[in-house]
Design goal:
The complex is a heterodimer of chains A (about 800) and B (about 190). Chain A is an alpha+beta fold and about 800 residues long. Chain A starts with a helix and ends with a helix. Chain A has four domains: about 5-155, 2-Layer Sandwich (Beta-Lactamase); about 255-375, GAF domain (Beta-Lactamase, 2-Layer Sandwich), CATH 3.30.450; about 410-460 and about 670-795, Rossmann fold (3-Layer(aba) Sandwich), CATH 3.40.50; about 495-660, 2-Layer Sandwich (Heat Shock Protein 90), CATH 3.30.565. Chain A is rod-shaped. Chain A contains 20 helices and 23 strands. In chain A, strand 21, helix 18 and strand 22 form a beta-alpha-beta unit. In chain A, helix 1 runs antiparallel to helix 2 (about 65-75) and helix 9 (about 380-455) crosses helix 16 (about 685-695). Chain B is of the alpha/beta class. Chain B has a single domain, classed as Rossmann fold, CATH 3.40.50.2300. The longest helix of chain B has 19 residues, at about 30-45. Chain B is globular, with a radius of gyration of 16 Å. Classes of the chains: A alpha+beta (about 800), B alpha/beta (about 190). The interface of A and B includes residues 59, 62, 64, 70 and 131 of A.
C-alpha cells in the first residue's frame, strides 16, 4: 500500500491543530505575562520609589545631601535599578545613585510625575512629600533585565513544551490514525475482494466505532442488495435461457400436443414446478378441459382428479379471472375458499399460478403451474410464466394454423384428385355412352326379330324356341349391362327401379353364368375349386334390381376364384335374419379359402381402380358392388385374414310383400288397334326390323330416314290430308335429332303422340324425365311388348 | 558652594511659605538665621506631640522664641498660614522664663544661654520641644541642638530628653541627626 494522503493529511491536521492552539495559548500567556510583569515592575518601582521618597523627606527637609545619598544607596539591594536621583524643591539635582553616575546621564529636571517605559528601561518621577508639602522629586530608573530573563525563561519553557506537545500529538495522531484508518483499510480490502472475485457473499467486519460501524453496515447492506440483485439477475438469465430453450423447442414442432409436452416437461425439469398442466378453453361451448398433464405431474393429476380430458367448471372465480386474460397467482391457497384452489390445497400444492394462453384477444387455454411450498413463486417467475404463456399461446396458435393449413391443403389435393378422377370418369362415360348407343342400335333388330319370332311363328320347334328364348335373354342382359356401364360412369341422379328379387334364384343364375370361371378354367390348369351353396329354403324376397345384384354376385364370385389360385372352397350362403325391431333382412355370403387381404388392401379394396390383379383387373369390380349395395340401402361386411380367406357379406332389407309384383307381371299386355305410324330413324336396319315387326301387328308404317326426312314426310302427309296416329322417332340422329322432330310434329299436330326410342332410354325412364313434346320414351333395344303397350296406351 | 546651598534652602522655604515677602535683601547672617527658622518650622513636622499638649483640637501650635529676634522674625514669615494638623502655627517672642509653659517648640537663642538651666527645669513635665543653637546644649538637656559647621547647620538630638518630655521624634529626623546622650545618663 503506498503512502496514503489521508494518513498524511490527518497527521498534518492534528499537528497543525495542536501547534496552533499551543501557539495561541503561549502567545496569550506571553502577552499576559508581559502585561503583568510590566505592571508588577511598575508597582515594584513605585513602591521602591515611594519608600525612598518617604525616607528622603528629612534629608531634603534638613538639606542633608549625604543622608540623601545614603538613602538612595539603599537601592543597591535591587540590581535592576540602574539610576536614581533626588531633586530638591527647585528641581536641582540633590543626590545621585550610583555615585559614579554623571549628571548628564540623568534628566536635567524632574519631568511629569509617574512611571513609563522607554528604551528597554522603566523610569519615573516620584514626588517627595511632607504632608501636603512637596520637598523634592525622586527619579528612579530600572532596566528590564529581570523581565527579559523571565521572558527568555518562558520562551525556553514554551519551546520545550511545544516540542513535547507536538511529539505527543504526533504519537497520539498515529495511534488515532491506526484506529481510524484501520477500519477504512479493512473496508477497502473487503471492497477489493468483492470486486476481484465477484463474490458478493463476503461481509465487512465491525470495528467497534459507531460511524465506521454505520459505514460497514451500509456497505454490507449494499453488498446484500448487490448479492440479491446479482442473484435475481442470475435467475432472470436462467429463466430467459429457459424461455429461449422452450421457444426454440416449440418452434420445431407443429402439433399442439407436442408443443405443450415440451413446455410442461421443460417447466417440470428446469423452473422447476411440482405440477403443470394445460387446460384448453372452448369459447363456443364455454367449457374448459384438461388437455395435457406434465409427464411428472400425473400423480398429482390423479390426486387432483384432473386427468386428461376432464372438464372443469369455468364458474370458478380463479379460472374465470384467468379466462378474462389475467395471470392469477395464489401464493398460498391453503386458506382460500375457491373450489379450484382448494383442490390444490388438499393435495399439498400451496403455490398456484394460472397463466392464460391468449391468442388474438381470446383465451384459448390456461397454463397451470403449482408448487408444494407456499409463496414459492417469485414475481420474476410469474412474469416469466406470463411471457412463456404468450409464447406458448402463439406457438400453439401457429401449430393449429399450420394444421388447418395442412388440412386445407389435403382437402384441396383430395378435391383435385377427385376432379381429375371425375374428369377421367366423365371421358370414360362419354365413350361408354357412345359404345352403348351403338350396341343398343346394333342389337335392336336382334331383339325385335327374336321377340317377333317367338311370338308369331307357331311352327317353331321346341329347340328353336328354346334357343330364341336364350338369345332374347342374352340380348336383354347385354342391353342392361350396357346401360349399367353407363350408369356407373355418370353421376347418380335417379332412383333405380326396384322390383322384387328372389335371392336364391339370382344366386343360381350367377352360378350358371360363372361356371366356366370356377369349374372349367381351373380344371384346365389342374386345380380344383369346390363349390358349396347353403341357401335358406324360405328366403324372403327383397326389393332391388336383379341384374345389378347378379352382376355384383358375379363380381364377388370372380374375386373369390381369383383369390384361390391354388384352389379351395367357394361357399355361397343365404339366410334370413330377424332384427330386434321385427325388421327382416336377407344376407348373402360369398366365402373363399384364398389368400385373404391385409389391412391396407382391405381398406382400399372398395376404391375404384384399385386392383391386386395387375393387368387382368380393372379395379372396378368391388367398386361396382359397393355402388350397388349403397343404391339398395344394403350393408356390406368384409371379413378377411391374410392367408385365411375372405368372406363378403351383403345384407338386404327384406321386402314386405311379394304378391303385388307377381300380380303386375301377370297382367296381359294391351293390344292397340291398327295404326298409321311414322317411323323416323337414321339406322336402316332398325327401321326395317321395326317396320317388319310393327306391320305384323297390323300397323301401317311410313319410314323416314333421318329427322328432317321425318318432319318432311309428316308435313307432306298433312298437306295430302293423311294423318299419322303416332310418331316413333329415334333420339340420336345427325343434324335433326328426335327432340326437334317431336317439337316440329307437336307444332303441326299437338294431338299426335310421339314415342322416343333411344340408346339412352334407360336413363330417361329411370329419371322419369320425359322431355317436352315427347309422350313416351322407350329404350333401345326396343321390346315389342313395350312398344305395343305404349301404342295401346297412347292411341287417340 | 555652601552659601549657594543655603540660599537654595532659603528659596525653598520662601517657595513653601508662598510669598515674595520672604525675599528681602538677605545678609549672610540673616541667611543662617533663616535656615535655623526653617529648621525649627520643619521640626513641627517630624515630631509628634501627645494629645494632652493641646488644650483643644484647634488650639494654636505655639512656637516660642526666647532671644534671637532675627530667628523670630524669620519664623513668623515661615509659619504664616501654616498648620500642624488642625492646629494653626503661631510664633511667640518670649521675654522671660515665665512665658515658656505653653510653648510646643521653644527656641532658645544663644543670648539666653545663661538661663538655660532654669528654663529646662521649668519645662520639666511639660511637652515642649526645646531647640537651641548653643554649643553643648544637647549635652545639657536641650532636645535638639543646631550646630553650625563650615556654613552647614547640623542637628544634634538628645533622644532621652525628648522621650522624657513625651515627645516622639521621627526616625527620618533621627537618621541625618547626631544622637546625643545626656551627661550622666547611661
Amino acid at each position: 500500500m503506498h503512502g496514503s494522503p489521508i494518513r498524511r493529511t490527518l497527521m498534518q491536521m492534528i499537528t497543525l491543530c495542536c501547534g496552533t492552539s499551543l501557539l495561541i495559548a503561549m502567545a496569550s500567556f506571553f502577552g499576559y505575562e508581559l502585561m503583568s510583569f510590566r505592571q508588577s515592575s511598575v508597582e515594584r518601582l513605585q513602591i521602591l520609589g515611594r519608600a525612598i521618597a518617604t525616607n528622603s523627606t528629612a534629608a531634603l527637609a534638613f538639606d542633608n545631601s549625604s543622608d540623601a545619598a545614603t538613602v538612595l544607596g539603599a537601592l543597591r539591594a535591587d540590581p535592576n535599578i540602574t539610576a536614581a536621583a533626588l531633586y530638591d524643591a527647585q528641581g536641582q539635582i540633590f543626590a545621585i545613585y550610583p555615585a559614579n553616575l554623571t549628571r548628564q546621564q540623568l534628566p536635567a529636571r524632574p519631568d511629569m510625575q509617574g512611571y513609563r517605559f522607554s528604551h528597554w528601561h522603566l523610569n519615573g518621577f516620584q514626588p517627595v512629600m511632607d504632608g501636603t508639602r512637596q520637598l523634592g522629586t525622586l527619579y528612579v530608573e530600572s532596566n528590564l533585565d529581570a523581565m527579559l530573563g523571565r521572558l527568555k525563561m518562558y520562551a525556553l519553557t514554551a519551546l520545550i513544551v511545544a516540542a513535547l506537545s507536538t511529539l505527543a500529538a504526533y504519537l497520539i495522531s498515529r495511534r488515532l490514525q491506526r484506529r481510524l484508518l484501520g477500519p477504512i483499510a479493512a473496508l477497502a480490502d473487503t471492497a477489493r475482494a468483492v470486486s476481484d472475485r465477484h463474490d458478493y457473499s463476503v461481509r465487512a467486519q465491525h470495528s467497534g466505532m459507531l460511524e465506521f460501524d454505520l459505514l460497514t453496515d451500509t456497505f454490507n447492506h449494499m453488498l446484500t442488495q448487490i448479492q440479491e440483485s446479482a442473484g435475481k439477475l442470475q435467475s432472470q438469465l436462467g429463466r430467459l435461457s429457459l424461455l429461449q430453450h422452450i421457444t426454440r423447442a416449440t418452434s420445431d414442432r407443429q402439433d399442439m400436443r407436442s408443443i405443450f409436452q415440451v413446455v410442461l416437461s421443460s417447466l417440470e425439469d428446469n423452473l422447476p414446478v411440482d405440477f403443470g398442466c394445460i387446460l384448453l378453453h372452448e369459447p363456443a361451448t364455454r367449457t374448459l378441459s384438461v388437455y395435457l398433464v406434465g409427464a411428472r405431474s400425473h400423480g398429482y393429476a390423479t390426486e387432483l382428479t384432473l386427468p386428461e380430458g376432464r372438464e372443469i367448471s369455468i364458474e370458478d372465480q380463479d379460472l374465470s379471472r384467468c379466462l378474462a386474460g389475467e395471470l392469477v397467482h395464489e401464493p398460498d391457497v391453503s386458506g382460500l375458499e375457491l373450489p379450484f384452489a382448494r383442490r390444490f390445497a388438499e393435495v399439498g400444492l400451496l403455490s398456484l399460478v394460472s397463466a392464460p394462453l391468449i391468442v388474438e384477444n381470446e383465451v384459448s387455454g390456461v397454463l397451470i403451474c403449482a408448487r408444494r411450498a407456499a409463496h414459492s413463486f417469485s414475481s420474476g417467475e410469474c412474469e416469466f410464466l406470463r411471457q412463456l404463456s404468450e409464447h406458448v399461446a402463439l406457438s400453439s396458435h401457429q401449430a393449429s394454423l399450420y394444421a388447418a393449413l395442412q388440412r386445407a391443403y389435403d382437402d384441396l389435393r383430395q378435391s383435385q384428385m377427385t376432379i381429375l378422377q371425375q374428369e377421367r370418369l366423365r371421358a370414360l362415360g362419354q365413350m361408354a355412352s357412345g359404345i352403348a348407343h351403338d350396341i343398343n342400335n346394333a342389337i335392336s333388330p336382334v331383339s325385335l326379330y327374336t321377340e317377333s319370332l317367338l311370338e308369331r311363328e307357331p311352327n317353331l320347334s321346341e329347340r328353336t324356341r328354346s334357343y330364341l328364348s336364350t338369345i332374347q335373354q342374352a340380348i336383354e342382359d347385354v342391353a342392361r349391362t350396357v346401360s349399367r356401364m353407363r350408369e356407373f360412369y355418370r353421376e347418380r341422379e335417379a332412383q333405380l327401379t326396384l322390383e322384387e328379387v328372389d335371392m336364391n334364384r339370382a344366386i343360381r343364375q350367377v352360378l350358371d353364368l360363372t361356371r366356366p370361371r370356377w369349374s372349367d378354367q381351373p380344371q384346365q390348369r389342374g386345380i380344383a375349386i369346390e363349390m358349396h351353396t347353403e341357401l335358406a329354403a324360405d328366403l324372403p324376397h327383397i326389393m332391388g334390381a336383379d341384374n345389378e345384384i347378379r352382376d355384383a354376385l358375379t363380381n364377388l364370385v370372380f374375386n373369390a376364384v381369383d383369390a384361390m389360385p391354388e384352389g379351395g372352397t367357394l361357399t355361397l350362403r343365404s339366410y334370413a335374419v330377424e332384427g330386434v325391431d321385427g325388421m327382416k333382412s336377407v344376407t348373402i355370403e360369398v366365402s373363399d379359402t384364398g389368400v385373404g387381404m391385409d389391412e391396407d388392401t382391405r381398406r382400399k379394396c372398395l376404391e375404384p381402380f384399385y386392383t391386386t390383379k395387375g393387368e387382368r383387373g380393372t379395379g372396378l369390380g368391388l367398386a361396382m358392388v359397393y355402388g350397388m349395395v349403397q343404391r339398395h340401402s344394403a350393408q356390406m361386411d368384409i371379413e378377411s385374414v391374410p392367408g385365411g380367406g375372405t368372406t363378403m357379406r351383403l345384407t338386404f332389407i327384406a321386402a314386405e310383400s311379394n304378391l303385388a309384383a307377381t300380380a303386375r307381371f301377370a297382367m296381359p299386355p294391351a293390344q292397340a288397334r291398327p295404326l298409321r305410324i311414322l317411323l323416323v330413324d337414321d339406322d336402316p336396319m332398325l327401321i326395317r326390323s321395326l317396320q317388319d315387326t310393327l306391320q305384323e301387328d297390323g300397323h301401317t308404317i311410313v319410314a323416314a330416314n333421318g329427322g328432317q326426312a321425318g318432319i318432311d314426310a309428316f308435313k307432306a302427309a298433312r298437306q295430302q290430308g293423311e294423318r299419322f296416329d303416332a310418331v316413333i322417332t329415334d333420339l340420336g340422329m345427325p343434324y335433326v335429332d328426335g327432340r326437334k322432330v317431336a317439337a316440329a310434329i307437336k307444332a303441326m299436330s299437338p294431338g299426335t303422340p310421339v314415342v322416343l326410342l333411344t340408346g339412352w332410354g334407360q336413363r330417361l325412364i329411370a329419371a322419369n324425365d320425359t322431355p317436352a313434346n315427347i309422350d313416351r320414351v322407350l329404350s333401345k333395344p326396343p321390346r315389342l311388348m313395350d312398344l305395343r303397350a305404349a301404342l295401346a296406351e297412347l292411341q287417340p | 558652594m555652601a552659601s549657594l546651598r543655603t540660599l537654595r534652602a532659603l528659596l525653598l522655604c520662601v517657595a513653601l511659605c508662598g510669598g515674595p515677602t520672604a525675599l528681602p535683601a538677605a545678609a549672610p547672617s540673616a541667611t543662617e538665621q533663616q535656615v535655623k527658622a526653617v529648621f525649627v518650622f520643619n521640626f513641627s513636622h517630624f515630631v509628634e506631640w501627645p494629645q494632652q499638649a493641646f488644650p483643644s483640637p484647634t488650639s494654636a501650635f505655639i512656637i516660642g522664641v526666647l532671644g534671637g529676634e532675627q530667628v523670630a522674625e524669620q519664623l513668623e514669615v515661615a509659619v504664616r498660614g501654616e498648620h500642624v494638623g488642625q492646629h494653626p502655627l503661631q510664633v511667640r517672642r518670649l521675654q522671660g522664663i515665665g512665658d515658656i509653659g505653653d510653648c510646643h517648640i521653644l527656641y532658645i537663642d544663644k543670648v539666653a544661654s545663661a538661663q538655660l538651666g532654669d528654663i529646662l527645669a521649668a519645662l520639666t513635665g511639660r511637652h515642649t520641644l526645646t531647640v537651641s543653637d548653643l554649643d553643648g546644649a544637647s549635652q545639657r538637656g536641650v532636645m535638639i541642638q543646631l550646630a553650625t559647621d563650615s556654613n552647614r547647620v547640623h542637628l544634634l538630638i538628645n533622644v532621652d530628653s525628648a522621650r522624657a518630655a513625651g515627645l516622639t521624634i521621627s526616625s527620618n529626623l533621627l537618621r541625618p541627626a547626631q544622637i546625643v546622650r545626656a551627661a550622666g545618663a547611661p
